[in-house]
């Protein structure tokens, strides 16, 4: 197995330690007097060289380096000794704690602490002198101190790494939230723009086509009146939306929110726009199965629900103006108190001889998005005519869960 390449700092530490040890040895600076050592002074160079060479493994193989250092330190005890050998040994203990396995790092301070106490006790028992306590302190300085320091450094590094990872995750989540917020806001703006302007532009397209295709002054004048009315209304809506997008003031007052009370005027406008295409519009409102005399205004629901219903009806009427065959377009609201509000819009489905306006399908997408956001259901498509009549109808049916602001009295 190929050994990993040693870190250049470790190579520098090994080289500097060896040069320093050789310098001290050449100056005759030993840990003990030569006459008390059983080996000649040059023997101290052997453990010095061994322990300095292991320093290149202090990061890549910390436990192996520590084992080699222990053997070198034991061998150094039988020579005149070198201060550099002891210092490099303390670095080996420190490195093993910092770069070694987690289990070793957790137990190193405990084991070295127990060894320090045991060695101090043995020395006192053998020599029975106060100086033995100092030897125990020295042993603790070269074992317990570096192990404890290494454990502290390792814990700080792990805490810093965990904090860095948390910061990266937080930044990533913030970026995801920002992206989702931008996407949601763009979708909301697209829905609002489509709902506010598409109806007017569809009417303009249909009536301008009728005015161009029919050589009738009365028809052309009526078409131009409808075109002017829808142009002014569409321009007003566009200016309001542009003002909303450009405004950075909290005091800006938006237009009134669409509500169920405005459905009657919406159908009146649709009737004027669809007269040239042979379309008629009806509105039916029931509350708990009973017809509501006051129409949609009799239903009071949370603002998001009323706005969604208004936009669904508006888009359905716009699609009817674009594509429906001549006939009746029926809008019905069925409110079940405290349960749901079912909105159904049916229009004649089939070939159309009059003018048509192109469609993009964005309206159906916007309706589905609104319904899904409120936890409701929606389906749209052709169906057989109700009551077994001839032909087919295009039906849009949306069911929105509601919780009334006012519960009925018991």
Describe this structure in words.
This protein is an alpha+beta fold. It has helices at residues 8-26, 45-53, 62-76, 83-99, 102-127, 131-142, 144-213, 217-246, 263-274, 303-323, 362-373, and strands at residues 279-287, 290-291, 327-336, 340-349, 377-384, 392-401. A 6-stranded mixed beta sheet has the order 2-1-3-4-6-5, covered by helices on one side. Strand 1 (279-287) and strand 2 form a beta hairpin. The protein is rod-shaped, with a radius of gyration of 44 Å.
Query: Overall mean pLDDT score?
Result: 82
Query: Could you give me the name of the CATH homologous superfamily of the largest domain?
Result: Histidine kinase-like ATPase, C-terminal domain
Helix content: 55-70%
Q: At the first level of CATH, what is the class of the largest domain?
A: Alpha Beta
Distance between the termini: 84 Å
Number of domains: 2
The dominant shape is: rod-shaped
Main beta-sheet annotation: 6 strands, mixed
How many β-strand runs? 6
Percent strand = 5-15%
Based on secondary structure, the structural category is: alpha+beta
CATH architecture identity of the largest domain: 2-Layer Sandwich
Q: What name does the CATH topology of the largest domain carry?
A: Heat Shock Protein 90
Total helical segments: 11
If strands are numbered along the chain, what order do they take across the biggest sheet?
2-1-3-4-6-5
Low-confidence stretches: 251-255, 406-410
* SSE order, one letter for each helix or strand: HHHHHHHHHEEHEEHEE
């Amino acid at each position: 197995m190929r050994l990993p390449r040693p870190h250049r700092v470790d190579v520098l530490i090994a080289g500097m330690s060896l040069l320093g040890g050789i310098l001290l040895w050449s100056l005759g600076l030993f840990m003990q007097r030569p006459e008390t050592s059983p080996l000649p002074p040059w023997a101290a160079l052997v453990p010095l060289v061994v322990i300095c060479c292991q320093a290149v493994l202090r990061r890549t193989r910390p436990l192996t380096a520590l084992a080699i250092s222990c053997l070198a330190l034991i061998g150094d005890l039988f020579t005149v000794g070198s201060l550099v050998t002891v210092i490099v040994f303390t670095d080996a203990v420190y490195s093993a704690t910092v770069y070694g396995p987690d289990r070793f790092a957790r137990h190193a301070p405990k084991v070295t602490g127990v060894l320090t106490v045991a060695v101090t006790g043995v020395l006192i028992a053998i020599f029975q002198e106060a100086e033995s306590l100092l030897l125990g302190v020295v042993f603790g300085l070269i074992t317990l101190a570096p192990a404890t320091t290494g454990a502290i450094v390792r814990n700080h590094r792990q805490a810093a790494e965990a904090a860095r990872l948390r910061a990266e995750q937080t930044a990533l989540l913030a970026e995801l939230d920002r992206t989702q917020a931008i996407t949601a806001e763009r979708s909301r703006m697209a829905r609002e723009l489509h709902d506010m302007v598409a109806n007017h532009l569809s009417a303009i397209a249909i009536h301008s086509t009728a005015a161009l295709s029919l050589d009738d002054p009365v028809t052309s004048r009526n078409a131009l009146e409808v075109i002017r009315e829808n142009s002014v209304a569409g321009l007003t809506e566009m200016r309001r939306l542009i003002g909303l997008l450009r405004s950075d003031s909290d005091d800006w007052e938006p237009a009134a929110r669409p509500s169920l009370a405005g459905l009657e005027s919406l159908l009146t406008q649709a009737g004027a726009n669809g007269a040239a295409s042979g379309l008629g519009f009806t509105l039916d409102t029931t509350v708990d199965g009973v017809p509501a005399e006051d129409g949609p205004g009799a239903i009071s629901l949370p603002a998001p629900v009323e706005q969604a219903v208004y936009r669904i009806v508006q888009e359905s009427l716009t699609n009817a103006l674009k594509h429906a065959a001549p006939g009746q377009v029926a809008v019905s609201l069925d409110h079940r108190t405290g349960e749901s509000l079912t909105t159904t819009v049916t229009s004649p489905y089939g070939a159309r001889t009059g003018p048509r306006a192109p469609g993009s399908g964005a309206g159906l997408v916007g309706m589905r998005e609104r319904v899904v956001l409120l936890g409701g259901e929606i389906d749209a498509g052709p169906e057989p005519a109700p009551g077994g009549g001839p032909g087919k109808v295009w039906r849009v049916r949306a069911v929105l869960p509601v919780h009334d602001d006012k519960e009925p009295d018991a």
